[in-house]
Amino acid sequence: MDSSGLTSIYAYYNPYGLYGLGGLSSLGAVAAANRSQGSSSVSGIGGSSWTTVSSLGQTLSAVSNLQTAAEKLTKPGAFSSLSVASSAPTVARGSAAEGTAQGAYTVRVDQLAQQQVLTSAAQATQYTAIGSGADTTVNFQFANGRSASVDIDGGDNTVKGLAAAINRADIGVSASVVSGPTGYQLQLSGESGAGNAFTVSASGDSTLSDFFSSPPGGNGLLLTQQAQDAKGSVNGSAFTSGTNTATTSVEGLTLKLNATGTTNLTVGGNADQAAAVTDFVKAYNAVQSGLNSLSREYAGFNLTAPYLRNTLSQALTPGAAAGSGNIQKLADIGISSNANGSLSVDTEKLRSALSSNADAVASLFSTDKGEGVADRILAQVSEDGALAVDNLLKSAAPSLTTAGLSTANLQSNLLNAMFNQQQNWLSQYSGLGSLTASLGSTDSLLSSLLGSSSNNLSGLGLIGGLSNPATVTSLFSS
C-alpha cells in the first residue's frame, strides 16, 4: 500500500474537519465506538488488530511531526535572537542578525535577479555533427571583466558533446540540451546578476565559430533571457543585489526575495530560541516510542524496528562540516541519549550555547552540504528515507498480515469504518443544523411579539448556545 493509502484515509473521509479525530491514531476510538453499539469488531477488524493500526497511525503522525520540526531547524534565522515576520512572504522574507534594530520595515521589490540564457540554432539530433571536428576554442567574456575559455575537440562537436565539455570546464556557465519542434538546441545559462552577463565567440572550426557567434550572426546564439540584478528598497532606501538574497542599508537585515511587490517586515525579539530544539527532541522521542510500541505488539516487526531505531540514532551524528569551535555534537548543547533510545535536554546548557554561539548551534543542525543533524534526520524521514511513509508502511505490512490484516483488506476496512462513522456524524450535524434553523425562526417570531431585543431569545444566548452541546442538553432536559 503506498502513502496514498493509510495516510490519506482520514483526510479523504473527513474533509470538513468537524469531528476532532487525530487521524489514524484515533481509529481505535472509532472501533470502540462501533463495539459499544453491539459490534465485536469494525468491518472484521478485531480489537488487538486495531491496537496495531492505532500504533502505526501514531508512528506515522510522529514521523510527520519530526519532519516538520527538523525543517524548522534548517531555515535561515532559526537560531537568531530576533524574529522577522513578513506580511507577504510570497514577496519577501527576512532574517535579522544580532544588533538589528527592532521595528517595522516596508520592503518594495521592483525586480528579481535572473541569469542570462542563450539558445543555439536547432540541430536534427543531439548527436548531429557541427562542423568538421577541427579543434576549436570557445571564449566567454563576462560583464564583470572575468573571462574563460573551453577547448572543444573533434569528439565534442555535437550539442550533446558541447554541453558536456562546457559543464566539465566549470566556468560559471551551465549548458544543457533542450528539445523542441525544430530539433535539439544548446542552451547556455550564466549565474544571476548583471555582472554575470556574457558574450561568446569561438575560434577554430568556421562552422562552430558561426554556431557560437554572439550577438547572433548567421546561425548564432539567441538571447532568450537577459541577466539582471535584483532591485528594491527598504523604507525608501534602495538596494541592488546580484542574487535574490539581498543585504540592505539596515544593519543586519537580510532579505530573501521571491517576487515583485511590497511587504511589511516586523523585527522583534525571539521569545524562545530553544523552543525549536526542544520541539525537535520531543518529535524524535515520539518516533522512537512509536517504533517501540509496534515492536511490543507484533513480534514480526522486531526484525525491522532495531534497524529503523539505529538509522535514526546514527542520523544524530553530524558530519565534519557541522558545528564549530566547542560545539561539535549534540552533547555540547545539552542533548544526551538515554538507554531506551530517547533524548533528554539540559535546557540551561542549551540556552547557554545559544547565547554564546548561536551560529555554531545553527551549523550543528544544518549546513549547506546537508551534514547537520536536522539535515540527516530529514534525509531519513523524507522521500526515499528509511522512515518515509511508504517505507514505514512496507516495514509494518508483514506484521499486519501476520495478524490477519492484509494491506488490501486493511485499507478497505479502514475506509469502511471511517465512512460509516462519518455518515453517522454528518447525520447528527445535519439534524442539529435543522434544529438551529427552526429555533432561529421561533426566536424571530417571539422577538417581534415581545417587541424588545432585551427580551428575545438571542439576548438570552439560545442560538449562540447551540455551539455548546451541554447548553443544548440543558435546554431540552429542563
Automatic annotation (TrEMBL):
Required for morphogenesis and for the elongation of the flagellar filament by facilitating polymerization of the flagellin monomers at the tip of growing filament. Forms a capping structure, which prevents flagellin subunits (transported through the central channel of the flagellum) from leaking out without polymerization at the distal end. GO terms for biological process: bacterial-type flagellum-dependent cell motility; cell adhesion. It comes from Azospira oryzae (strain ATCC BAA-33 / DSM 13638 / PS). The keyword Coiled coil applies. The lineage of its organism: Bacteria, Pseudomonadati, Pseudomonadota, Betaproteobacteria, Rhodocyclales. GO terms for cellular component: bacterial-type flagellum filament cap; bacterial-type flagellum hook; extracellular region. Residues 227-436 form the Flagellar hook-associated protein 2 C-terminal domain. The keyword Secreted applies. Residues 52-116 form the Flagellar hook-associated protein 2 N-terminal domain. Coiled coil: none annotated. Belongs to the FliD family. It comes from the Bacteria. InterPro entries: FliD, FliD_C, FliD_N. Homopentamer. This is Flagellar hook-associated protein 2.
